[in-house]
Amino acid sequence: MIFGRSERGKPPVEPVTLKILVAGGFGVGKTTLVGAVSEIKPLRTEELLTEAGRPVDDTSGVEGKHTTTVAMDFGRITLREDLVLYLFGTPGQDRFWFLWDELATGSLGAVVLADTRRLEDCFAAVDYFERRSIPFVVGVNCFEDAARYPADTVRQALDLDPEVPVVLCDARDRESVKEVLIGVVQHAMASASGRRQALTT
Question: CA-based angle 64:65:68, to the nearest 5?
Fold first, then answer.
């Protein structure tokens, strides 16, 4: 099966598409995560950081960052011939949050990437998904120069509900990212099952 076409003699398969958002603060690794796991060259909308943006783009802790996402990152993973996962990386800065509602429409769930050096940068993303009842997983991107903390310590610092998964990951590593995405799908399925049970009781 080639994406979009079936083998000769077989009827075309119309794949089911799932959508997962990748959110978090500025410079936390969203673009890197999408690129690490996408089977296609990711669509990126990165622009160079400029002097004019310095007052609003806090590069503390990410001084080596020279570009920023201004709309979204997009990647794709074919799980089966009839099941495709789309990844949408959101822009991290406050001034681009008006795009989030469009990107969130129809999403199965989300990854909130966190950096323990700047944990407060992911508060807004956590709040966004909590308010809209969108299932999410917190992925702690383990930067080499960042302190390592147990998942439960991060959970307490972010004041997360007990059912929200917290996983340690490396946004550069394909296998690590796959585990995070599996966690999102499993958590979304569990959340949907819980809602169905609540409706029938």
Answer: 175
- Strands 67-80 and 16-24 come out as unpaired
Q: Are 7 and 168 in contact, with CB atoms under 8 Å apart?
A: no
Q: Which single residue is written with the structure tokens 């099941």?
A: 83
The pTM score is 0.79
pLDDT in tens, the chain (201 residues): 444 455 566 777 788 999 999 999 988 999 999 999 999 988 766 555 445 444 454 545 545 545 554 457 899 999 888 989 999 998 866 666 678 888 899 999 999 999 999 999 999 999 999 999 999 999 999 999 899 999 999 999 999 999 999 999 999 999 999 999 999 999 999 999 888 888 877
* DSSP tag of 199: H
Tokens linked to 154 = 């991060």
Proportion of the chain in helix, strand, coil states, percent, rounded to 5: 35, 25, 35
Q: Are strands 43-48 and 166-169 parallel, antiparallel or unpaired?
A: unpaired
Distance of alpha carbon 87 from the chain centroid: 7
141 burial type by CB count under 10 A (0-12 exposed, 13-18 middle, 19+ buried):
buried
CA pair distance 80, 85, nearest whole angstrom:
10
- Are residues 106 and 144 in contact, defined by beta-carbon separation less than 8 angstroms? no
The CA-based diameter of the chain, rounded to the nearest angstrom, is 60
